[in-house]
Write a structure and sequence with these properties.
binds uracil, 17 helices, four-stranded mixed sheet, alpha/beta, 3 domains, Aldehyde Oxidoreductase, domain 3, Transferase, Pyrimidine Nucleoside Phosphorylase, Chain A, domain 3
């Protein structure tokens, strides 16, 4: 086999066989495929597609291009993946809540991508937290604590790492085939028995409309089940920030307030419970989603999830007293400004992508890959759709490293909010569920 024939087969619409996928993924991992060939392959897949069987073949091949973690644990190994959004810190609540329900969660997460925040960047806002500890530490923390939120090192799906970098600079990111194989190869390399997907839809999501979000959810569910991992998806709302805060340390603060019951964010809690309910059904721990969601509610209400979060933070190098002292331990920004509502009215629409971009420009995300993140900056107190505002009342608060950056963020937030005189319809938190029974069976 050679790269030219694999690329030509995809280019000519003849698809991607398991053998060809295996050969190409190995070539990506060990550099026997050149950058030019990888770019041509990505463009051929982008333009012609590889069909359901090709997605399974590429997912399996990229998963197997590195280490696939094996587990010997007394409970099921389950994870969740979100396609990315603003103020979406569900992973930080869900991992310890699932662990409290007897599930083991090796959560291999990513950094911020474009305007969306990344779980790994949020965890690194905790001083001392080692987000890239390697597979041996991941395994021992998962076994001892029940969950570990970490990033992928070079051992996990190296073929995806290489192809992702090439897609990023060759106009081939937005292919459902490639996105599916990219997300799932990394997740399945964690040796999961079940996976729940949070596919975001709306102004702050990569998939802005219901049709494209459904197509991605169906592709992910069909491919993951076809590759042998029990998987279902919820399509959840991203027409506004999910949390009241967007920005790394500010989101961790909001998570801790919710975990400890100090100030509960109900939207975050409800999405966590819905995804957790789904995960507990996949894990065989709950008979149905509602009973699973009630188990997650209980893990959050009793403080058991908070305790596990604290143990995970300490095991990965963070402060041993984080749960008790998180307000003192998290970094805070020197400049604070209120964004005043320009008039009285109801919040009618929010451009969530613009909020994410404002956080990136404050220094809370990256404009180029080498940028260093400032964990302390971001937005808090974000008003939600349907909220009634008086003129001058705060729509949000800006946390910035300088006056200039704060002013720019105030203007960006004002431009992102639309007010109306009448009460608007509030978007549902959960739009749709796609289970294995909703997609065609794959071999
Ligand atoms: N996240 C990934 O890991 N890969 C993609 O292609 C898109 C989002």
């Amino acid at each position: 086999m050679d790269a030219r024939s694999v690329i030509a087969a995809v280019r000519d619409g003849r698809g991607l066989s398991p053998e060809a996928a295996q050969w190409f993924a190995q070539g990506l991992a060990d550099d026997n495929v050149s950058d030019a060939q990888a770019g041509a392959f990505a463009m051929a897949v982008f333009l012609k597609g590889i069909g359901p069987a090709g997605r399974v073949a590429l997912t399996r091949a990229m998963r197997d291009s590195g280490q696939v973690i094996g587990w010997d644990l007394p409970g099921p190994v389950i994870d969740k993946h979100s396609t990315g959004g603003i103020g979406d810190s569900v992973s930080l609540l869900l991992a310890p809540a699932l662990a409290a329900c007897g599930v083991y969660v090796p959560m291999i997460s990513g950094r911020g991508l474009g305007h969306t925040g990344g779980t790994l960047d949020k965890m690194e806002a905790i001083p001392g937290y080692r987000a890239l500890p390697g597979i041996d530490t991941l395994k021992s923390v998962v076994a001892g604590v029940g969950c570990a939120i970490v990033g992928a090192t070079g051992e996990i799906a190296p073929a995806d790492k290489r192809l992702y970098g090439i897609r990023d600079i060759s106009g081939t990111v937005e292919s459902i085939d490639l996105i599916t194989a990219s997300i799932l190869s990394k997740k399945l390399a964690a040796g999961l028995q079940g996976l729940v997907l949070d596919v975001k839809v709306g102004s702050g999501a990569f998939m802005p409309d219901a049709e494209s979000a459904r197509a991605l959810a169906q592709s992910l569910v069909a491919t993951a089940n076809g590759a042998g991992c029990k998987t279902s998806a919820l399509i959840t709302d991203m027409n506004q920030s999910l949390g009241h805060s967007a920005g790394n340390a500010l989101e961790v603060l909001e998570v801790m307030e919710t975990l400890t019951g100090t100030s509960v964010n109900e939207a975050l809690w409800d999405v966590t419970a819905a995804l957790g309910g789904e995960a507990l059904v996949l894990a065989g721990k709950a008979a149905d989603m509602d009973r699973g969601a009630a188990m997650i509610d209980n893990a959050l209400e009793t403080g058991r999830a908070a305790e596990i979060f604290g143990r995970m933070v300490a095991a990965l190098g963070g402060p041993a007293d984080f749960v008790e002292r998180y307000p003192d331990r998290l970094p805070s920004a020197p400049v604070f400004k209120i964004v005043p509502s320009p008039r009285a009215g109801f919040v009618a629409r929010v451009n969530a992508r613009a909020l994410g971009e404002a956080v990136v420009r404050l220094g809370g995300g990256r404009l180029v890959g080498s940028d260093r993140i400032n964990p302390s900056v971001g937005l808090s107190g974000l008003a939600v759709i349907g909220e009634e505002m008086a003129a001058g009342e705060p729509i949000a608060m800006v946390h910035a490293s300088s006056e200039d950056r704060a002013e720019a963020a105030v203007a960006a937030v004002l431009a992102a909010y639309e007010l109306s005189d009448t009460l608007p319809e509030e978007p549902p938190l959960i739009h749709e569920r796609i289970g294995p029974e909703d997609v065609d069976a794959l071999t």
